[in-house]
């Protein structure tokens, strides 16, 4: 425990009491844990208790907590300059990272990259760029999708509670299509038909600037977009002069076994957003896209004071190097394999697990009650029990009944197995 924390309060409970009086209610919290330090895939709280981190800071830590290469790169950058705004003077890490991402993003065409700070900001800017290029205003997103907490991205977000509750009205010109869901009987045909119905009844196709989709819905419950849907969206966009935006804030930076999840479907979006694990724990986001689309906004129309922070760029360059050197894309597939097998084994023994799904190391289980209905209460109890047993887990999904795993890809097999056994034991304790 650090001395400062030791001096100010001695327990999680005391710090939580201070948190309650100092921090607004709207800032939720999944666990009654006050962190002291972290290393790779483990966290220690202020009382010295150890936790395995299956949440990864919500998908931010693909390369682990305090990755030594990321720390070294940021330290080297700290020695030169910590901040300048790209709108004032240009700097090497921004340009170098843009060149890297342009080369890595799917699509056999010239690309450009805009750097920002948060995922929501990347989505907002992707829409701004799409509007500037197409000179159209409408955007189609998907039910149960999630795109951020700013006003426009909340408008795009399908799930209402708690994100949108009390914050409306939201910007107009946003329409929602159906996302396929095999278990609920919603097919790819249904999803495409829902877009055609929007064109017919709500917004003419030639008013639509962009369709935005998460290749795997994150907050919505780790719902994998079938490759056929992504291919048909590409064709539908091409036929109607609409841009396809892949929101890879949660799926990108190697989480699913390819650097961009949409690569699994062999589809090149016009614009793709990245954030979270891109900079290994530093706030940085990106929009990568077709050069002529990215160049559509007028001079000075894009940016922000902290957009593309030099520290974030240095961290992201180290993250990409680490992925290449340590073959982390392969590791992502292997982690996914190990977790999926372990969870399938659990599902075969437990009727409460109705589905095991995901892509690469983005893996989740859906929990149901004896009648087969979504069981958010059981999910909450498993999350709390796992935490008591030393595992940080998160839930997600429209009904809050999905346990999701976003563990650092740098975690050892042994640690992954230990985490799985805690989930298994938590079912026993709670059932
Ligand atoms: N898009 C997706 C797909 C996300 O998962 C998230 C964050 N969960 C966001 C956008 C928003 O990112 P941020 O919280 O960094 O604004």
Summarize the model shown.
The chain folds into two domains: about 5-60 and about 325-430, Alpha-Beta Complex (Aspartate Aminotransferase, domain 1); about 70-325, Type I PLP-dependent aspartate aminotransferase-like (Major domain) (Aspartate Aminotransferase, domain 2), CATH 3.40.640. Helices cover about 40% and strands about 15% of the residues. It has helices at about 5-10, 10-20, 55-60, 70-80, 90-105, 120-135, 150-155, 190-200, 225-240, 290-295, 310-325, 330-350, 375-390, 415-430, and strands spanning about 35-40, 40-45, 50-55, 110-115, 140, 175, 210-215, 215, 225, 245, 270-275, 285-290, 355-360, 360-365, 390, 395, 400-405.
Describe the structure.
Its EC number is 2.6.1.19. This is 4-aminobutyrate--2-oxoglutarate transaminase. The protein is α/β, with parallel strands linked by helices. The protein has two domains: 3-60 and 327-430, Aspartate Aminotransferase, domain 1 (Alpha-Beta Complex); 70-325, Aspartate Aminotransferase, domain 2 (3-Layer(aba) Sandwich), CATH 3.40.640.10. 39% of the residues lie in helices and 17% in strands. It contains 14 helices and 17 strands. The chain has helices spanning 3-8, 12-22, 56-59, 68-78, 92-104, 119-134, 151-156, 188-201, 227-240, 291-294, 310-325, 328-349, 376-388, 413-430; strands spanning 35-39, 42-45, 50-53, 111-116, 138-142, 174-177, 208-213, 216-217, 223-224, 243-247, 271-274, 285-290, 353-359, 362-367, 391-392, 394-396, 402-405. Strands 4-12-11-10-7-5-6 form a seven-stranded mixed sheet, with helices on both faces. The chain has a four-stranded mixed sheet with strand order 1-2-3-15. Strand 8 (216-217) and strand 9 (223-224) form a beta hairpin. Helix 5 (92-104) packs across helix 11 and helix 13 (376-388) crosses helix 14 (413-430). The longest helix has 22 residues, at 328-349. It is globular. The two termini are 35 Å apart. 4'-deoxy-4'-aminopyridoxal-5'-phosphate binds at residues 58, 118-120, 123, 146-148, 214, 218-219, 247, 249-250, 275.
